[in-house]
Amino acid sequence: MQKQPLLGMTLSELQTVVKNMGMPSFTAKQIASWLYDKKVDSIDAMTNLSLKHRDLLKEVYEVGASAPVDAMRSADGTVKYLYQVCDSHYVEAVYIPDAERATLCVSSQVGCKMNCKFCMTGKQGFSANLTANQIVNQIHSLPGREKLTNVVMMGMGEPLDNLDEVLKALEIVTAAYGYAWSPKRVTLSTVGLRKGLKRFIEESECHLAVSLHSPLPLQRRELMPAEKAFSITEIVDLLHNYDFSKQRRLSFEYIVFKGVNDSLPYAKELLKLLRGLDCRVNLIRFHAIPGVDLEGADMETMIRFRDYLTSHGLFTTIRASRGEDIFAACGMLSTAKQEADNKNLI
Length: 346
Fold this sequence. Notes:
By secondary structure, the chain is α/β, with parallel strands linked by helices. The chain folds into 2 domains: 4-62, DNA polymerase, domain 1 (Orthogonal Bundle); 70-342, Alpha-Beta Barrel (TIM Barrel), CATH 3.20.20.70. Helices cover 35% and strands 19% of the residues. The chain contains 12 helices and 14 strands. The chain has helices at 11-20, 27-37, 51-60, 120-124, 132-140, 163-174, 194-203, 217-223, 232-239, 264-274, 299-311, 332-345, and strands at residues 4-5, 61-62, 70-73, 79-85, 89-98, 101-105, 109-111, 126-129, 150-153, 186-190, 207-211, 250-256, 280-285, 316-318. Strand 5 (89-98) and strand 6 form a beta hairpin. It is elongated, with a radius of gyration of 21 Å.
């Protein structure tokens, strides 16, 4: 019988486990402390549980931590880690050190259904949703995890398309019984799915980043097919119903493509679209991927775009480009690994 992982369980789920096994209710908090505070990798290490209770747990459960199976290191210090999930699939987590900060970009799915034109993960198609165990494990089993200051749900997959498991993982990261991080240290990035956006805003206090990439619905639809189901204007209308003026941050991600969305008319349309929202815009350099006829704008163009938006009251930054020498775009390392495994099977 395959054992079930404890890592990735919320406190309420652990309470159900110990109740079903006839253990005292306080045991659930003890297990949570071992998993998320002390970060153990075995039930045997949970030494304030009786030997009898540890043996009972081991009959059905395991911690469920698994180390990365591969890593690629960039000259700038960025490290892309590859985790094996669902037996024969892989996902990536990217560690990005930057002065006093260290951010981990975490995946939520194997592949993705969104099929954005500029995204390598979308070219894989969709294979599976990650469980809360597989999401949290990217943090738990990260080499040098003690240095982490921030987590961004911006890796492979669309987080709102796997919202139940993502919310469980975010609860563990921010709850007092879990990693006890402030929600201000966590950001979820989404194309903006109708079914999940409202629920995420209301059930989580983590920051929100919306993938925008064009202020024009027709052009955004060409870049991001999800625009057909829930348009950027509908997304913005929904966001106007919530207060982002306090601690919670709302941002829009905007990849700047050469000759596509990088000119002054697009900046003016952005200002019109986002008027009245308390938000910021992050401009992102495009990392080229195979088979896609898009190029990144040059830095001079990006600076001009940023300065125009900022001068008109929309706070705008240019995100530093990291890890370009290590398959920087999400999905490229896992795609290469999957293809290599498939060749070995032939």
